[in-house]
Amino acid sequence: xxxxxxxxxxTVHLPVMLDEVVAHLVQxxxxxxxxxxxxxxxxxxxxxxxxxxxxxxxxxxxxRDLLARTRDRLSDDIAAGxxxxxxxxxxxxxxxxxxxxxxxxxxxxFDLGLSSFHFDTSGRGFSFxxxxxxxxxxxxxxxxxxxxxxxxxxxxxxxxxxxFRNFGEERFAGRIAGRILIERxxxxxxxxxxxxxxxxxxLPARIRWRAARSAARIFQALxxxxxxxxxxxxxxxxxxxxxxxxxxxxxxxxxxxxxxRLVKQFLVAERTAGRMQILTKRPLRPSESEVANNxxxxxxxxxVAERL
Length: 308
Known about the structure:
alpha/beta; two-stranded antiparallel sheet; 16% strand
């Protein structure tokens, strides 16, 4: 993922491993495809071009602001009836597809990476590179979803340690959680810069110079916890298989080990059950040239399987 300047200002998302995704997902002209994380529409647009003249895409995204930008950018495809955009979570994938009478489908794509919009433009505290409120919700209109600041304010030291260790794989999870409890008695930890300062202070003095590494893991862990990302993926993958036509393909791009391990285990179980054939013996990785142009793509892993 990377940022690029859009004609209307701000940033747009650069789709990762675009050629590889389209080549594996679209086997012939026509067909129906679901982009369960439509984001800026880069993958969806390429699928539409490859499946022309009458292929169709149903795109889903939790973020209303992001979806509005994509709706504006791909308005011609929407007007032509080839692209349908829906605000929602892919945890309700089968329900959304059924509501729009879109099944069975020929391909489903999950791009599990965070959008450049979230990092660079949203103002919701996904990155510690700028001072922003600690929100981190993909759908800030969802009042039932706690913000990152809420978690830091209300969770016990053991709960925070578990979040940082399980979702961030952070070595100093306990130290950082303990420091948060001390600091929040003085003032709420409500901004990215406050949290970065707390993380830095919690680390052993000898390694504070590399505090950004721990901060990246803590921010990742909070984002996963806020949006219940791993359980959402667990819920969605079986639904994706259920809506695939025989010969239809499932493509998943993961960006960290927790996601990729979950996807790998699911596909192996589906293969054992005789429902899926795994087409990528090992996950595909972005080319050196793509990583050179888009450093955020470096950790991407693409796995593809076909419905039997």
